[in-house]
Design brief:
Number of strands of chain B: 9
Distance between the termini of chain B: 18 Å
Largest sheet of chain B: 6 strands, mixed
Distance between the termini of chain A: 29 Å
Oligomer: heterodimer
Strand content of chain B: 15-25%
Largest sheet of chain A: 6 strands, antiparallel
CATH topology of chain B: Rossmann fold
CATH superfamily of chain B: P-loop containing nucleotide triphosphate hydrolases
Number of strands of chain A: 10
Chain lengths: ~475, ~325
């Protein structure tokens, strides 16, 4: 352990004395103070706070990520090039200790900078909330909607499954000809279902089923805004549109545990919050299946227009599970885990290549990973077939396309679990970053993948001749 | 060795082998694994405990390659290498070796104290013992007044002293010194040579690679001369250099008439003209005397301080 700590301390000293640490601190100060001053959001305090959280923390993660990748890519290779490694490698140090020491040094540097970032963000938020020129209403909205760690429950997305079922039914009935390519037919069915699922014309109703997880923490008695339904919809036509209807909230057995009449004139996208009582929530949890049924009946009164709900966030159930401070700490821990993975990637490249090649290789791997994940998200958003038999029939791809698809899927298998863990987005939406997320991030990004990369790095380091004339 | 003596030589010959190299071959290959340079060709070497062994040879003769194989920094293409009874890449073997490379590959942003502390911690030396050793080594190398300055600001000679100190931090059994006196002033050179002799007396084994033949001649028990990757001459220094057909006699100055008679007697008995001159002090001894006098009168200096002190734990 002494040797690992010695190497970690050396890495930290190198960062501090090469002015890297100071430069990064200066860049972070610039981001943290400069960005909120230049981007104003939508003019509301909530918008300003969202910008403060999302952009500053997002950019901080980006800058620290790039710096970590660059520093780690040179951490071992530069020592091999300058031959400083000769004096270390002839000491009784296992390559694993060199690798781990460097990684821990980088991790400590990032942890320090993230702590600094967190403290500044906390200070800026308190200053902005308590600053003059803001109404109590605005402050309350920010406290309720942003400065909290809230679990978010959305209706299960069954679009692909529904489309598949309807396709089979229509195919059996002969409504769809067997000559029509399945992808084409499915695409049309999906569009049709999207309309059906998100549109509520006058004198009709729509139901959503929200499945409440069994590990949910119900907020304290005094927390009246702890549980709330958030609804996003717009009337089908802009202008003087009136909305008139009733919201019923209940369970499968008791459909109207709570009810609320809505009558308003709307213009554009509307956001509405319905507080849910603890009693209602307990009723839901007591039900088998723990399902909350939310229904909207468009009563058609006063020439009420058709409502169009947002497909993704049309209806969401928020449950306040933690305060902002602890949520921020958890989000920063997830970011730290991400940086730990980048450090491991850079160090692994550093054991194999020269410093510039290692930097190029690790940045390329990161770019390819991000792009692959982006393509997969696009395909998940409706650009792939819903079941295997359709995929087989869909088209006869070329060998290159098949290989490409196979590669992308395999890469996604590796990087998907990592890329799906988010912290900055949920934090700036007031959504909960749970300890489960942190644990998952730590296990994957600070233990499992770094261990794999470390093992590869150590193996390469052991095999490498450190005093070759051209190294 | 300067003050070794016959009894010491006898002990060395009976001692255990610290380094055993048999049929060592090192071929450097290119990216496509095609042979590029044959740096070492069938080298056999045995270095015993307590001896100072000199590796000599012109540039590119394979000295540094051999040393780097002994340290595990390069892998042998073929042949067998045993250092302290084990593979040179064994971690336990490395704990018993001290190495000074041909250039002091130090971290420029660390001070001498931090440098020694870092390398000491790599040997997992107890912090109290390490602190004492660092203090003694800094005093021995004359760097105690520059202990907190970054090594990057040092002259080559001062950096060399830090390099030497780090090679001794673990009180090693085998010390490998590659051009240890390069960049050092004559005082430093003498000090390094005295240090090698002291360490050898304590039973440490030293491998010295140097182009300064006078230094090698001063301190080494045995030498090997390499050329093109193989040993061309190997043996005890005095045996290799001794001229059996000549004798040198040193005595107090004789009166002219006595001198004349002695020379006539030699001419008569040997039949050849004898060579007569006054023994002189060598330049190194003269320089050391001058510097020692100057040091006694000087108040302070920015470079390394001349010292004849030896770290206690190395004595």
């Amino acid at each position: 352990m002494t040797r690992i700590i010695a190497i970690a301390s050396l890495q930290i000293r190198a960062a501090v004395r090469s002015k890297l640490f100071i430069s990064l601190t200066a860049v972070l100060v610039l981001i943290l103070f400069g960005l909120p001053a230049t981007i104003k959001g939508d003019g509301t305090l909530l918008g300003q706070m969202k910008v403060l959280l999302y952009y500053t923390l997002g950019l901080t993660t980006l800058v620290l990520g790039a710096a970590t990748l660059w520093t780690s890519s040179g951490a071992i290779s530069q020592e091999i090039e300058s031959r400083q490694i000769h004096l270390v490698a002839v000491k009784p140090v296992h390559p694993f200790e060199i690798w781990l020491g460097k990684w821990l040094g980088l991790l400590f540097m990032n942890a320090t900078l993230l702590c600094f970032t967190g403290l500044i963000i906390m200070g800026l938020i308190h200053r902005n909330i308590n600053g003059a020129g803001r109404s109590d209403q605005e402050r309350r909205i920010v406290r309720e909607e942003l400065l909290a760690g809230r679990s978010l429950i959305r209706p299960r997305d069954t679009l692909q499954q529904e489309a598949g079922n309807r396709y089979h039914t229509l195919l059996k009935k002969g409504v769809i000809s067997a000559d029509i390519p399945p992808e084409e037919a499915l695409s049309e069915i999906r569009k049709q279902l999207l309309t059906e699922n998100t549109v509520v014309p006058p004198l009709s109703s729509r139901q959503w089923v929200l499945e409440v997880p069994d590990n949910l923490n119900i907020p304290e008695e005094g927390d009246k805004t702890g549980i709330a339904l958030k609804l996003r919809f717009s009337p089908v036509r802009a202008g003087t549109n009136s909305v008139s209807g009733r919201w019923n909230i209940g369970t499968e057995r008791r459909s109207t545990l709570a009810s609320m009449v809505v009558s308003n004139k709307l213009d554009g996208m509307h956001q509405m919050t319905i507080p849910i009582t603890r009693e209602l929530m307990k009723e839901v949890i007591a039900e088998p299946g723990r399902k909350m049924i939310v229904e909207y009946r468009n009563d058609g009164k006063e020439r009420s227009r058709t409502l169009v709900f947002d497909r993704i966030s049309g209806i969401e159930l928020y449950i306040r599970e933690s305060g902002f401070e602890s949520n921020l700490v958890r989000a920063l821990l997830v970011v730290l885990c991400r940086l730990a993975l980048l450090a491991a990637l850079g160090l692994a490249a550093s054991t194999l290549f020269s410093s510039p090649v290692a930097t190029f290789a690790s940045f390329s791997i990161l770019l390819v990973s991000c792009l692959t994940h982006y393509f997969i998200i696009l395909s998940e958003a409706g650009f792939h077939s819903c079941c295997a038999e359709h995929a087989e029939k869909a088209s006869k791809d070329s060998v290159f396309q098949t290989a490409n698809t196979w590669t992308i899927k395999k890469v996604e298998t590796v990087i998907g679990p990592v890329m799906r863990i988010e912290a900055v987005g949920p934090l700036s939406d007031g959504a909960l970053v749970s300890w489960k997320d942190v644990g998952k991030a730590a296990l994957l990004m600070a233990v499992f993948y770094p261990a794999l990369l470390g093992a590869a790095g150590v193996l390469l380091f052991r095999r490498r001749e450190l005093a070759l004339p051209y190294t | 060795m300067a003050d070794g003596g016959a009894s010491m030589s006898g002990q060395i010959e009976q001692a255990d082998a610290v380094v055993e190299v048999s049929k060592l071959v090192k071929v450097f290959k290119d990216f496509w694994q095609r042979p590029k340079v044959r740096a070492v060709v069938g080298l056999d070497l045995e270095i015993r405990k307590g001896e100072i062994f000199g590796l000599l040879g012109p540039n590119g003769s394979g000295k540094s390659t051999t040393i780097k194989i002994l340290l595990g920094l390069l892998h042998a293409t073929s042949g067998d290498v045993q250092v302290l009874g084990r593979s040179p890449r064994n971690v336990e073997t490395k704990a018993r070796i001290g190495y000074l490379p041909e250039e002091s590959y130090l971290y420029n942003y660390l001070s001498p104290w931090e440098t020694l502390d870092f390398y000491g911690r790599l040997f997992d030396i107890d912090s109290g013992v390490l602190k004492q050793r660092i203090e003694q080594l800094l005093e021995m190398t004359g760097l105690q007044h520059a202990a907190d300055r970054p090594v990057g600001e040092f002259s080559k000679g001062m950096a060399r002293r830090v390099g030497l100190a780090q090679a001794l931090i673990n009180d090693p059994e085998l010390v490998i010194l590659d051009e240890p006196t390069s960049g050092l002033d004559p005082v430093g050179c003498r000090q390094v040579k005295d240090l090698m002799i002291t360490l050898a007396k304590r039973g440490k084994t030293i491998i010295l690679s140097s182009h300064l033949l006078a230094d090698v001649e001063d301190v080494c028990d045995r030498i090997a001369i390499l050329y093109n990757g193989s040993i061309r001459a190997q043996g005890r220094v005095n045996q290799l250099l001794e001229k059996q057909e000549s004798v040198r006699l040193t005595m107090p100055s004789l009166p002219p008439d006595v001198m004349k008679k002695v020379l006539e007697l030699i001419r008569e008995k040997v039949g050849k003209e004898p060579q007569v001159d006054h023994p002189s002090m060598n330049l190194e001894q003269f320089f050391l005397e001058v510097v020692e006098k100057a040091h006694k009168t000087a108040s302070s200096q920015s470079g390394a301080t001349p010292t004849d002190m030896m770290a206690d734990y190395l004595k």
